Description:
By secondary structure, this protein is an alpha/beta fold. 58% of the residues lie in helices and 13% in strands. It is an enzyme of class 5 (isomerase).
Amino acid sequence: MKSLIRKTVQDAIETKQKFFATHEDLIETCARQMAQTLEAGGKLLLFGNGGSAADCQHIAAEFVNRFQMERKPLPAIALTCDTSIITSIGNDYSFDEIFSKQVQALGDKKDIAIGISTSGNSANVIRAAAVAKDQGLILVGFSGAGGKLKEISDIAFCVDSPVTARIQEVHITLSHILCDLVERMLFHDQ
């Protein structure tokens, strides 16, 4: 068991080191775009399934409440939370439409859509991403090594790992870094 623990921790560290060593410029670019969007009155719309759905809620909470500093709330909505909306769309249309219809209803061209899919191919995430692009939103994609989300995203964060857990661990660390940078940019704590 101890060797499994050490291997898991080492794999997690190596995956993060590899990702962040090659994505610093893109992370800074994304944080600046997020700060500009929020400063201009836009919002963040987040969507994903399973653990990625939980990550959407976690990320939205960091922006709406606070992350590292006391500051005013920033608008971010996890499209994974309203069970009445999700189940009515799933029932009346299909599970593939649960996020796209919400993006149609809530998305504005001054907003950023953040789609999260460890495979990069979740049908409902891809449909919502396509709607976001059609409506003129900036699309940020968090995925594994590839998939359709990488191809259509304006800003694509792809984690080169075959292990879903390692991908998710990078995604949440990335989210924390983005939130920290945005807070510093908007609230001048640099």
